[in-house]
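User: Modeling request: complex.
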Amino acid sequence: MADVKKHDTPMCDELKKGPWPSFVDDIEQHGLKGKQECLDLLGLLELSFVHKETHWKHGGIVGVFGYGGGVIGRYCDVPEDYPSIAHFHTMRVNQPASKFYNTAFLRKICDIWDHRGSGMTNFHGSTGDIILLGTTTDQLEPVFYDLTHQMNIDLGGSGSNLRTPACCIGKARCEWSCIDTQQVCYDLTQEYQDELHRPAFPYKFKFKISGCPNDCVAAIARSDFSIIGTWKDDIRIDQSAVKAYMGGELKPNAGAHSDRDWGPFDIQKEVIDLCPTNCMWMEGDELKIDNRECTRCMHCINVMPDALRPGTETGATILLGAKAPILDGAQLSTLAVPFVPMEAPYDELKEVVDKVWDWWMVEGKNRERFGELIQRQSLQEMIKRLELKPIPQHVKEPRSNPYVFWSEDEVEGGWDRDIAEFRKRHAA
Amino acid sequence: MGANIEELKEKILEFAKKKAKHKSKMYIKDLYKADTSASPREIKKAANMLVQEGKLEFFSSGSTTMYGVPGIGKTEEDQFGTLD
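Assistant: Request completed. Predicted assembly structure:
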């Protein structure tokens, strides 16, 4: 047994009793193999449970040379009792696009972190980075050197930087992907290296890229700049496969939900009636779609993947301003650009990015997310700043809330008018 | 740009040193006031160069990054101690 000291942690130990694997078990086992940091970490967690307050200090000036992100200083406020975690910095590592790894990569990164850090990792943080938990200031540069020279990977974003862009599995494994999400993710990561590594903004800024409107990376909920693959033309229909679904030869939802008997597949009930815009119907035994009314909800395609496929004229929709609920509740991204072509080098996309940043860097308040700036200054202002053409799809109820107002210089005669003249024609 | 950026760096450093006497950590937007004719991107670039030269330093909470002047305010050692 390694020469380590285990703290009494009765409350943490309670967490080992549940039906699922516990982080307490994992950390303790690694600690008992010789990592005092892991045992001190559990001891400190127990102390926090007793005191009902944290014993971590927040933030610091630590980092690696030339970078203003990727390292988050963490310090324990009772270092005498838990000396091995007095300094316990986090490093964020830019994950490969779609999180593709081989086992050699994973072994190597674990070896580096066991050697130079606590050995504890978080695969992955919410933004997508590989999170390396717990090391000391003197190890930061050596870890950075090893990551960049031995593993060919870089630190990710933190602080008021562009955060590490993240994408879904995309065309690598998904037939629905309308765009090459990995290429877009890599391109944006390379293009905006400066913003990723050096703080430029009032607060964090996130790109997320999903290949289709199923939005498996949850771009619409989690990113300031959501890029979601879509198509312009018609959904492709294979009528013989539609018949095969109706006849029971093909399983709906590609066989998902088949753990119980839901009865025979009913295309009317399970597809047509669930279409949010009622744009589907049967003519005899042929499925028809009014594609002009389709909102790309993906439901019919998800249910009958052999029969229906996204169109071939593909690109992306850009939505802006999602955030988690620190201020004013959580917010989903709002539609900005319904369709941009997505061919490298993605100039149309980057034009929008530049306009977003130009506005936010000047007008955004400290610690104000881009979505909060839109809320504060209005959607109308966003449309103006981004030089977009207002369209009904920008608002939820365009007939009752057009959300677009005339400015004085757009109105003949401005706001001045002769009230007396008006009253001659209209009683007060 | 070469001469201008040096000039801008000087203005930012002077501004940051003055401001740091009252508030040791400042946001990037505070630094915009060092030269209102410069664009935010120019300020960011110059401020980052100053950090690389060791004349300014970053302070990151993990979610937000601020700028400080080394030696003004609490140092890392003051706040967190050193490891033996």
